[in-house]
Design goal:
By secondary structure, this protein is mainly alpha-helical. A hairpin with a 6-residue loop joins strand 1 and strand 2. The chain is extended, with a radius of gyration of 19 Å. The chain is built from five helices and two strands. Helices cover 38% and strands 5% of the residues. The chain has a two-stranded antiparallel ribbon with strand order 1-2.
């Protein structure tokens, strides 16, 4: 019931100005959600899919001789297709298994480097 919902929001301190801001925010952006990207791993209560960690199943920073060792999981291929379909300006992840909402960056060979978008991502994170 819409009236009860508005009353509940008002009681939580979320008034008309906040609702209008949020309505504008979501109506002027494309929000893409992929619930449970690793559905098989979630169902089996394990990180891996067929013995492969989907978090490491991307063609980033791999040697040409190992090119057949990426995009082997359904989760990895699904995430890849979402990114191929959309030109994202910003991406965040809510990663199961830990309490974190994070921005994407990194690979083992880049542990000592800042991301190309570090300044923008840091400012966004400071707003939280």
């Amino acid at each position: 019931d819409a009236i009860a919902c508005r009353r509940d929001l008002d009681e939580r301190g979320i008034g008309e100005a906040h609702r209008r801001w949020l309505a504008r925010l979501v109506s002027t952006r494309r929000i893409v959600i992929m619930p449970t990207a690793n559905a098989l791993g979630y169902y089996q209560n394990r990180r891996e899919e067929g013995g492969i960690d989907p978090n490491r199943d991307f063609p980033f920073d791999i040697e040409p001789k190992d090119s057949d060792k990426c995009m082997q999981t359904i989760a990895g291929r699904s995430i890849n297709e979402v990114f191929r379909e959309h030109m994202f300006q910003l991406s965040i992840t809510f990663h199961a298994g830990m309490e974190a909402v994070t921005y994407e960056w990194g690979a083992p060979t880049y542990l000592k480097y800042m991301s190309p978008d570090d300044e923008a991502q840091s400012q966004i994170a400071q707003g939280y």
